[in-house]
């Protein structure tokens, strides 16, 4: 008899107490302007979102009719959320995208960052701490895989408009680590008045950073070390930090 493959040797039997139940009432969630329908168990939504937990616990119209709408979010973002609550992963990466070069690489990076930012926006709206933490981690993994930073005008505008404190801090820290040489595209002529607080925050962080470093360099290396640990930007309501 031949030696079984690693895949066949992988343990498939699990304790039945860990079993995910797929029984129970469902609700239809209509997402985006297109009202793309998703049918989801109420119990799973409630356990992964404070927004849905409150809605489904009370006699709101959505709970009684079994239909909820999320017109300001994208079906793609909700698809990522669904995969997260059922499978525990953030599916945003394009296969071999980070192996591209030149303009193609930058385009693939921008596309994935947009997906992740849409997912972070949804996580914040749904008040899903686990999903938001996972999407923040995915953002950092994307930066590490592509060896690029999301410091373009379009991505900055999108992040600032979302008005999520932890995400604003992430982008501020990216700009601080990039150093002033990367800020040239954001002159007074192109500056958006609504971003004033964002740049003031960068100035404060840059002063502290420059006091602690002789020079701001090796940006990506910093991303992969404690200098920019995703856990720093996670929500920890119980006070416990990430295990990794």
UniProtKB/TrEMBL annotation:
<protein>
    <recommendedName>
        <fullName>BTB domain-containing protein</fullName>
    </recommendedName>
</protein>
<dbReference type="InterPro" id="IPR000210">
    <property type="entry name" value="BTB/POZ_dom"/>
</dbReference>
<feature type="domain" description="BTB">
    <location>
        <begin position="25"/>
        <end position="94"/>
    </location>
</feature>
<dbReference type="InterPro" id="IPR011333">
    <property type="entry name" value="SKP1/BTB/POZ_sf"/>
</dbReference>
<dbReference type="Pfam" id="PF00651">
    <property type="entry name" value="BTB"/>
</dbReference>
